[in-house]
Amino acid sequence: MIARAAAMGAGAAVVGAAFALPWWANPGMLFLAGLTLIQALFALSWNLLFGYAGLASFGHAGFFAIGAYFTGACLKYKLGIPFPFVLALAGLSGAAVAWLIGIVALRRLAGIFLAVLTVALSEVLRLIIGYTKFLGREDGLNDIPRPIIDLGLLTLDLTSSEAYFVFLLAACSLLTAMMWWLVHSRFGRTFQTIRQDAERAAFIGTNVSAYRIAAFMISGALAAIAGGLFAPWTRIVTTDEVHWLMSIQPMLNTLLGGVGSFWGPIVGAMAFAAINYGTRTFVGLAEVIVGGILLLVILVAPHGLLGLVAALRARMVRGHPAAAPLPERQR
Amino acid sequence: MLSEWLFSVYSGIASGLAVFLVAAGLSWVFGILKILNMAHGNFFMVGTYVAYSVVGQRPESLAAFMGASLLAAAVVGLLGFITDKVMLRRLRGADYHYVLMGTFALAMLVEGVVKLIWGVDLTTVNPPPLLDAPVDIGGVMVPRFTLFAIGAGLAVFAALDFALNRTWAGKLMQAVAADPWMAGMMGINVPMLLAVSVTASFALAGFAGGLLLPFQSLSPDIGNSYLLLAFFAVIIGGLGNIRGAFLASVLLGVVQQVSTIAVPNFPGLTVYVALAVFLIWWPNGIFPPAGLK
Amino acid sequence: MGLSRRKLLQGAAAAAGVGIAGAPRLLLAQGEPIRIGLMFSLSGPYVPASEPNMKGAQLAIAAYNRRGGLLGRKIEGVPRDDKFSGAGAVAATRDLAGMGINLFVGGSSSTAALATMPLLKELKAVFTIAGAAAMSITHESFTRNAFRVQANANMQYGGLGRAMAIQFPNILKWQVVAPDSAFGRDAARTFAANMRLAHPKGASKELEIRDPMLVGASQSDFRPQINQLMNSGVEGVFFAAVGAPTVSFFQQARSVGLEKKLKAICEGQGDVTAKALGRDMFTYWGPTFWPYQIEPTKSNKLSQEFYKDWVDAYKDSSPPTVGCIGYRAATAILEGVKRAKSTDAEAVIAAMEGLQFDSPTGPVRLRKEDHQSIGTVFFAQYAPSSTEPFYEIKSVKAIDENTVVERPTPGSEYVI
Hints:
The complex is a heterotrimer. Chain A is built from 13 helices and two strands; from the N terminus they run H-H-H-H-H-E-E-H-H-H-H-H-H-H-H. Helices cover 71% and strands 2% of the residues of chain A. Chain A is mainly α. Chain A has a domain at 29-240. Chain A has a two-stranded antiparallel ribbon. By secondary structure, chain C is α/β, with parallel strands linked by helices. In chain C, 42% of the residues lie in helices and 20% in strands. Chain C has helices at 2-21, 47-66, 86-98, 110-123, 153-167, 182-198, 223-231, 244-256, 258-261, 271-277, 301-314, 323-340, 345-352, 401-404, and strands at 34-40, 75-81, 103-106, 126-129, 146-148, 173-179, 208-215, 236-239, 264-267, 284-288, 356-359, 362-366, 373-374, 376-384, 391-400. Chain C is globular. At the B-C interface, helix 1, strand 2, helix 5 and helix 10 of B face strand 7, helix 7, helix 8 and helix 10 of C.
């Protein structure tokens, strides 16, 4: 009980500090903090699919890019759609694309094939964007204006970085809360049964296929919304957002933080941002550091930072090492 | 025009067999260990850079060139042995997603190290003098090295096929691939065989690196570009199936090269379309996985 | 006692420093140094081009410091890696701006430049671009606070078209091989259009510039295309891609003797290709951003000084010519501050519009309307040599950028 309260207290302190960031951090750090929030949401979307539904998407950047480009285009070409609606539509497009892929691919493929298909599809998306004039082709969509939300009684002018950051934080908190609720609902628990043993779940009457597609859709929608929040923050969207490195990021963040926990992806995103910031002057070492950390995590701490914390707690409470092994290969 | 089509088919066969040299090792590791080694392309790249360090820009003779390739094979094979010991052994029996991500992390690490050691500059390596000048076949200038690449690809395929299907060692490997538990029961030293297989497949990647050094320019991207095509070949051919990988590599190569003549306005798109089409119709590949063949 | 001993030690150290340095030192830095943010891609695929760019900028700063700094203050370059991405460029810009810096040199890729430009007004900053050739920078994405101090894509490839037309008036059949991207297709079009304008037979049907042969962005096997070129009766080829594909193409072309069949080959990369080919080198034409080995640049005082500084600082006697781009861009902003006698953005911008200054490659003018620099663009005949680095520049064609630069249309798209 005390531990629970302590954790919640720590969480509240972090969130409080985060809301106050615009006032105590310098602009560079504020910008990186915003990117971290977006990456955390993106990683969360990935883990919904992997940690809860057991499906690994290696091309998740595709959804992120769909949301980023959609939002960027709506804002740049001043289509007049209120920003919250733009985000909602971005989410819907992510879900729609996920549904399409799901009904075609998830029935026949799983595992490695799904992984490769998602990679191939995000590459095709990159090529398609490259051919599309109004999406900026290779130079991308630049000079994307920050939105001004008109709520009738009050207007939220998100042009300044500080204002947009607060909006970003609020949006991410809201979406995270929604996902938390979803995961702990009956819906979410069904996912877990499917992940643990799909065959048995089918035996007890669960429509495994439908749930998988649903998971894919929710994950795709959330990733697209993350992309939608990204576009006005950096004010530029390019094919970098569809690159396989962008697809690897949520994987890395989730593993670093801990796959088994809901908060894992968020903790991982923050940890990785800290590592990135700390090593930003080590030029040319980016791949070595990222690859090295990921490898280390997989070999030594496959349950990530939160897994290490849990293992430490178990050791302290029960007095014997609780080194959780890697999740077993599914039959 | 006809000669252009014929040449593109020929060139496709050559580039396809070049990809096969990389795909073979990838397929082999999958057949035995059931893991898709995403670091395979970058280890192939290590092989190219090692061979380049030995032979420089102008290999003096075919012997020096082959020697460098064998050295590359030895070095990368050793790296494979170490990788198996330090990393892959720990991941045996783990959820394949972790292994996939682990090999991916290894790939990034290796690429970073290659850039640190050899830099990021572009270079080219000449074929050895015997294989340099073009061959005039009926008015068409055929680069001599492509003939070598085809020969090497066919030779490697023949050797692997023979080794796996007609030697006792190969049959042991097939047994381990099909059912490791049972093979262990029958007295086969499964761990040793696995270690040998990994080492051999990495050595093959290193050897391919040396052989393909003069095929295109040398840069730190070369690992990823070969890996992508090798992946597609292995998946289309059927995981673990060397014959499938052979067929699929050649098919992909021909499709890719012919499309530059047939569909000149959309270069680069055909491989993805081909992959998507294949995965929808034959999700398990031409020869569905059943151990190692 | 400690104080006087410390003072003695300090004095001794200073005296020793002056003695070791040899040259007389000007008394500088009474006030805070003027800091210039240097934002280049220090990671990513184009490090071989952007790293020398940054080095050039740093040497320009050092040269100014030698002459007494700016406004009586020392100049300090603050480097940042933009990680070759839009987000990285924004992070670097905001990081530097948070430190109080409002003068930037960089943008070694179009993405990085385009990402930084919208922020400049809000940050009250001035930015000179050294590396990004995309047309949109001085057209539809134009912003007052940015100046492009290098040839844009149109000037680069149009200039090449003109140079080839003048150099090879007898070649009447050309083929462009271009990557299938906006950049590639535009490069092909501008090359063809400018060649036609400058060629003696440009107006007639005799000059045949065929539709571009498209190649994939990451293609590494060009054998079918090379085979087509061998049989096509074409006399001149322009290969418009950059990076590894160009080198692969040249290597594979050599293996069937394409270069012997053609009368001319040109490309858009320059010495990077020659360095990569090494002993496999054959003669081709390509851009050079700083032809220090050949007149008239050889006798240019600034070029000689820059070359000496480079060799002294980096122990490299064949500096990559892109280094000069960074040098010029840094010079532009430093001159702007000097003329404006202030680091205030509006004053610097006003001073830089229409500014003319000297560079190692001759005079450069910053056009007022669209902030595009206009100087001279150079194309070199790269030929094999028997000694390291196995290539040399045999001759250089200088094209006055006034003849190729497009009409200024800030705020609207550039149409060829």
